[in-house]
Every structure is written in C-alpha cells, then in structure tokens.
Amino acid sequence: MKARVSDILVVLTYAMIAVVAAIAFQRFNLMSAQLAWLMGAVVFLIAGQVHAAAARAEERARFEAELRALKRANAALAETLTNAQTRLDAIDAPAPEAAAALAGEPAPGRDEALVARILARLDAAEAPEPEPASEDAAVMVREALDANRVDLYLQPVVGLPQRRTYFYEGFTRLRDAAGQVVAPGAFLAAAEEAGLIAEVDNILLLRCVQIVRRLTKSDRRVGVFCNVSLRSLADEDFFPGFLDFLRRNGDLAGALIFEMPRAAFEGRSAIAARNMARLADYGFRFSLDQVSDLNLDLAELQRAGVRFVKVPGDKLVAAAHGGEPVAGREPGALPPEDIAGLFARYGVDLVAEKIETEATVVEVLDLDIAYAQGHLFGAPRPVRDEVLSQTDQDLRRTG
User: Fold this and answer.
1) What is the pLDDT of residues 204-232, one digit of tens each?
2) Longest Cα separation, the chain
3) What is the spatial distance between Cα 369 and Cα 349, in angstroms, rounded to a whole number?
4) Phi first, then psi: what are they for 251, rounded to 5°?
5) CATH code matching the domain that covers 109-398, chosen among 1.10.1380.10, 3.30.750.200, 3.30.70.260, 3.20.20.450
6) Contact 17, 44 (CB under 8 A)
C-alpha cells in the first residue's frame, strides 16, 4: 500500500513539473500555447521513463539479493538434512558414538578415523568382482592402496604472457611392489571396473587438500586442479562423506578446483549433476579437460559451476582458425582473438594445455588465452612425503 501511494505521489510530482514547464514556456513567449503544452507532455513522459528505469534497476537488485539469500538457505537446509540423517543413523550405533552424535558433537577420533579410512585399503569383500581382463590390474591397485603406495604429482599451470604459476594440477600415481611408477592408463580403468575409483579419488582429495594448505600459507592466490571421477560424485555411499570432508575444509573452496573429462560431464547423471550443484553452493569450482573442440554450451557450463576448460594448444589454435563451430556459433562467425572473451563472458577461462614448444606459445598468445600448461613450463613432479607430512597435522586439526 505504501509503495502504491508513493508511486502516485511521484506521478503527481512529475505531472506538476510538466504543467509548470508548459506554463513557463507559454508565459515567457518561448513557444505557442499548443506547442508549450506538447513540450510539457514530453517532459512528463521522459520523467516517467526515467523513474520506471530506476524502479526496474532497484527491483532487479532486490531480486538478485533474494536469490543469493535463497541459495544460502538451500545450502543450509541441505546441511541440516545431512545432520538429521546422521542423528537417525546414530540410533543404531554403539552407545559412545550414538551419544556423541545425538549431542551434536563429533564422535571420539572422528577426524582421525576419516583420514585413516581414506588411507586404509578397501575391503575386497565390499568391492565388485573385476572382469577377468582387468583382474591383475585390480589386484595391483588394491595392493598399492593397501600399502599406501600412492603419490601426488603436481604440474604448474601458468599465466600468459608472464608465465607466473597460478595453479597446479594434481595427478595420482601408484607404485607397484618393485617401486616402479604405474602409468594412469594402466590402473584408472581397472580401478573404475573394480569399484576402487572412489578410494583413489578419496586419496587424491586428501593429498590435494594437504598441498593446498601448504601452498596457501605463502600465496593465497595459488589453486590446485584435483581430478575426480563422475562415478564417485554419483556414488551415494561415497559422496556424503566426501561433501562433509570438504564442508569442514570450506576455507579452501577458492583454491580447490575439481576436474573431469568433457565426455563424462556431458553424460553425467541427474545424481551427479545434483551433487555437483551442492559442491558449487559451497563455493567449489569445476574444470573440464579432454576437450578437442570449442563447440560447447557455455550457458550450461556457467550453470554447472564450470570455470575452466582445458584444450590442447595445437587443437585450440586449429579450432580457432579452422572451420569449426564455436559455442554454437557458425564457423568463422567469431574472430580468433574474440573467442577467449566470449568464454570469459560466461565466467569460463580457457587453458591451453600440453604445450611443448615456444612456437605454440606464440600462436596461443595471439588468441589472448589467459593460462597454459605443458612440459614447456614444467613436467609433473612428485611431492615429497616430508612435505605432505608437515601439513598432515593441520589437516587432522581442521578436517
């Protein structure tokens, strides 16, 4: 009611201004009476349009504020529901754990148990039987997890043209019984088939959190790309603990970016999409790799929280100068130097990866690409155990 009365008063004020203007034009003989009243009407219409535009801007700002508040409330509701489920589960728990959970306190040794569970081997009885073709590889993965022969390798991602390191990409590498490093192609598929990929993702997450805490002590701007399987994000047994661990390390949201293949992202299930949205609500971002062309749905990437897209440098240059569609545009519709700007308007940064030569760097610079990665700037290198151990105590305390 107050808003309506206010609008009526504003309209009356503009009408009075228009009448006064018309009388003034006529009284001072600036124009004929008919033209004076016409000018008064024009003044009234212009003032009304200015007021309407200001009102729309205010309404839009209010709507955006309400939307942000709704997202925060949604994240809080999701956390409340998770806590409620924990309390229900505690009814069947042994007495000490149940008492702690129902009191709203963590069970004794909860954080330590979580870290131990991440690093412990997966019980073979709980894992699906692997296919015969991958049985040897699955056994090797189980043994490596059991013996904690899991290493974190880091490769720098630099900004162009200065080549300052802004991010690192984290890779999981397993070692066999002889201490030889096993290539990803030799164990990732086997881990997927044997139901061990969640365990591998869990360990990589722990390692990435450890190294992020180490790096951000000296530079808060440095982030780490952490590879994660969509199968893990869709696993209803794995994801609640995964989300809880990240929520309790929420201060790292700006520095931890979850990376996945483009094909997996585009084929994600409804459960995986929902769980990605829950991570995005807590401020975590996503990156896509294994991208061979630029014909991406940028609006969908923006909605899903994808903020980085990695494309091999040579393919990026070829796509920019070739006859391929870019983000749904017709081939050749965008000048090559405008492509990065188009992605940036949707909050997505392009990363030219697998850069091996200076010649490729020159071509990528012509496209105004912000970031680059490849052996030219540094090969993946293992993080020393002592570096991780120095941050392990902080992780247990804050995890």
Assistant:
1) 888 888 888 888 776 667 899 998 888 88
2) 103
3) 8
4) -65, -15
5) 3.20.20.450
6) yes
